[in-house]
Task: inverse folding
């Protein structure tokens, strides 16, 4: 390979490395911009307000998380997270 060829390949490698190094920063800025516009990322929750209210009633009645999740047709961790979030919000009020 010629010295010019090695130089061009070296420059391309440095630019590629720079691009990879800037990906996390660009992602963070993009997410901040989206949040500033009121958008949130991620998958929507399966726990609708109606399901949450039902889960809270069933839990107050002494039903286990497993039984609640089966009754509502959602996973047990989804029920637990939703109930924890609701309890945290009630505690803040």
Result:
């Amino acid at each position: 390979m010629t010295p010019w060829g090695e130089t061009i390949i070296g420059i391309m490698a440095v630019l590629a490395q720079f691009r990879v190094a800037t990906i996390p920063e660009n992602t963070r800025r993009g997410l901040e911009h989206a949040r500033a516009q009121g958008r949130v990322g991620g998958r929507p929750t399966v726990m609708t307000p109606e399901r949450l209210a039902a889960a809270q009633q069933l839990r107050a009645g002494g039903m286990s998380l497993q039984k609640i999740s089966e009754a509502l047709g959602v996973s047990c961790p989804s029920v637990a997270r939703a109930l924890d979030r609701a309890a945290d919000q009630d505690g803040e009020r």
In short: Residues 1-37 form one domain. Residues 3-36 form the longest helix (34 residues). Helices lie at 3-36, 49-60, 65-72, 76-92.
